[in-house]
Design a protein that fits this description.
There is one protein chain. By secondary structure, the protein is of the alpha+beta class. It has 13 helices and 54 strands. Strands 1, 2, 3, 4, 5, 6, 7, 8, 9 and 10 form a 10-stranded mixed sheet that branches. Strands 46, 47, 48, 49, 50, 51, 52, 53 and 54 form a 9-stranded mixed sheet that branches. The chain is elongated.
Length: 980
Amino acid sequence: MNYLFIPLIIFSLSFTANADSLLEKMQSSFYQLNKTDNQRIIQNKPDRFQKPVRFRSDSILRNLNGSIRYISGKNLEAASKRSFRSIKARDLTTAVNFLKKNSSLLQIENPSKNFTMIKSTKDELTGGSRLRFEQSYQGLAIWPSEIGIHLNNNGNVTLMNGSYLNQQRRPFNVKPVVTADMAQEKALNGKPSNTKVSKKPELIIYLPDNDSSARLAWRLELEVSLDQKLMIIIDAFNADILTEFNQIHNAAITGSGVDLLGQTRPLNLFEENGQYLMVNTSKPMYDAATKKGVILVYDWMNNPDSEPFNAPLIRSNNPNIGFLPDAVSAAYNLSNTYDYYLERHQRNSLDGKAGDMVAIVRVGRNFKNAFWNGKAMFFGDGQPFAASLDVVAHELTHGVIQHTANLVYQNQSGALHEAFADIFGEMVEARQNSGKNDWLLGTQVGEIIRSMSRPEDHSQPSHMNNYQYLPNTEDGDNGGVHINNGIINHAYYLFAQSIGIKDAEKIFYRALTNHLLKNSQFVDARLAVLNSAKKLFGENSTQVQKAAEAFDKVGITANTASTPPPASFPSVQGEDALLFACLLQDGSVHVCRDEKPTDQQPIVLSQSTVAPTRIAVDGSGEMAAFITSQNDLCLIHTATGTEDCRHNPGTHHSVAMSPDGRYVAFVLLDANGQITPKITVVDMKADTEKTYKLYAPSDSKQPVYSIVAADSMTFNANGVLLYDALNQFSGADGRTFQNWAIYSLNVNTGAIQNVVEPDQGEDIGFPSLSKTSDNFLVFDVYKDQTKTLQVYTMNLNTGKFAKISEFQGQKSVPSYNGDDSAIVHMFPDSGVAFNTQLIRQPIAKDRITPQGQATTWLRGVSFGTVYRRGKFVGPQSYAAYFDVRTSILKINAITTQSGELRTFDMKLINGNPLTFQLINNQAATETDGLKATMEANNSIIIPRAELTELDGNTSYWKVNMNLEKTDTYVIPEGGLIPLQ
């Protein structure tokens, strides 16, 4: 990890604004408050005393990124009491109410706008319904994000499952660098010349699995050949291919084949003009009026699979002879698969809506494959897959999955796709064989493809300990979809062996059709099966117990204070207190306070709801600033709750306040809700407002305007603002890269410097400075590859840093406590609001090294800010400071004869006695703070000099210097007096 560091030494500001003056400034003309709005004031009294809440549920499962994957309870949201024209309308309103009320718990923004219902299905078992929602952000689809909300027969929400994009570590940028044409060109690169673009590039937000970071991306589809329909996702910033997979579900991955069985099968045919067509109209799905609901078999007639060809229906002049053996097998096995789903699950055809079932035989020449392409079954002539009932049922089940869960064909969701196809392929075979099956896929083909009872016999894992982490490529089998499905297959085998096939298949079918969604993972399959078993057979049934045991067997389970360091300036006296975001019973999130001994338990402080950003507080603990959930900016008295806002919603992203209360800084949003690369700073003392356009410092000393956004900010005690910002730049190969790093802005000069720069693949941010010094920084580092979060401290003088903690998460928002004896940060805590707690990690006297064990401070809260209530002293005014790195003493002095203000730079040249040589003497401008006196004999009296050691500790001295030679000064014995 490579870090750059800078010293942050600036003459201190003597002005200290009180809380009342801050509110007055907020109402001044440069703030442009809407004077017609009444000021909103809350007085916190004991009757407003509330606790942050836990969500009432039977079970909550979260992903490592904090989003909720599964939540169940008897009544998560009561049915809406409004009058509705239909049950469907009532259920939709109830589901949306659930999302809105619990948006903070779920960590989602604007659910009414960003979630769209795509399907509503009736649950025939319970009389309830399931509503499926897709997610979007600023008009872009989040793919394959999808959630399901289940309601009982009374219309109450009882369960939510799925995957979605929760509030991310960073604000999301929806401005692509790569154009649609560039993405299409990248996708076609290396493909055959006859490849067709079947779906043109669509800009989306790609959320591949439950713990991955979302990426702005282009999604498009290519038709490479008959059995290759590629879905390709391309990064919209650097044109990397994020995923590429074949959407056609292929049965010949491992290669196998035998001759046809040679058995005579009964056929249902359709006669037309003396011709007997292989069109089966005997099924209940057939509608004579529309001629729909049939099983049809076509002949590709061995044409090359790359040629467009209108295949004719299989036909013969005699109803008992002349049919292709391939077609007979196909027709027979399609018929049996239809009968299975209708008899066992009351499913009328693959789509459940009496849709036609189509098979095409003799595809290509010596084409050793069989597959479902989303519309029909295709059988090559190289191997007789049509003869194998379990293979045909497997491929047709891909059609059932397409019309139900629609699992994405990659990684764990793709392995579930394959597993459920295997499972029901075997169940169709078992039905045909009077309840007996061999748990082997492809027996009738002559070469076993997979075994559900002994997956290892065919190079598949049967336990998560042996899960194969393969690349999501063609060579990697789309992330191991035909390999890792062995784990789910084996779980089903164990389950069916323990309770019998009839119950097992019923439970797994319900899990597939009522619970699983596009991006479901293995753990979702466990939850879906357990929930289905409970609904079908009861909460404490044997089926539920055995289901849990089966998944357990394959490894898919549910699941001292230190001495304060020496101070550079005095700490505020008193106990550590906390401002934080807390969740109330109505689902809203407010600013809350936990201050001992005043508060017996947390108190709700703000009237406005708060956005998921750091709450700023001044050094005295009197005044705080926060961003509302409507992206407005508010100030609030921490003692009384008196609140004053700009009344300009939709324009503010984050806020910081200087310890002395002089400065308030904020990042603005543009008209599209995007974060701007600008920071506005309000100077309360000077009554001014200035906006700084952010840039990236460069070696050429010319600013590079490559910063596209800023996020979290913090002030030091001397008016320097530290912030994290996104730097977007192009590499030598033309690819675009993005890095979050930490910078500093001198609000007096506008100068910007690097503070901490990340290595590739790191996101560094959420900076916060120590409370008794400006020389120590705490921040966190998100590792994109490992999805881990690390909390670091850093000595800005030396560049030395230390790791405080490491865990799975997205952000910690760390800060020092009131006397710099500990670091406080967010830490995962399942089963409580926000899935977080605040923990306190003691640190050593050096302010950076962890010491002892971390302890919990407060559970179920987030974005904690530590403060102390009392007088903030801050850095002491000084007339000189000594830089230990350069050995230069810099002095601001007034000459007694002329009254002129001069700046002297003196180099230490001897340590005994302390001897300095004058190397610079020039006129100076007026500055705040103390001043030394240059006497007529050129001796210098310094009332206060600051010395900050390399390890960051600061002390103050009174210094008397005597002139020894023309340009040499000596501090005699007794001339160096320590100050308290």
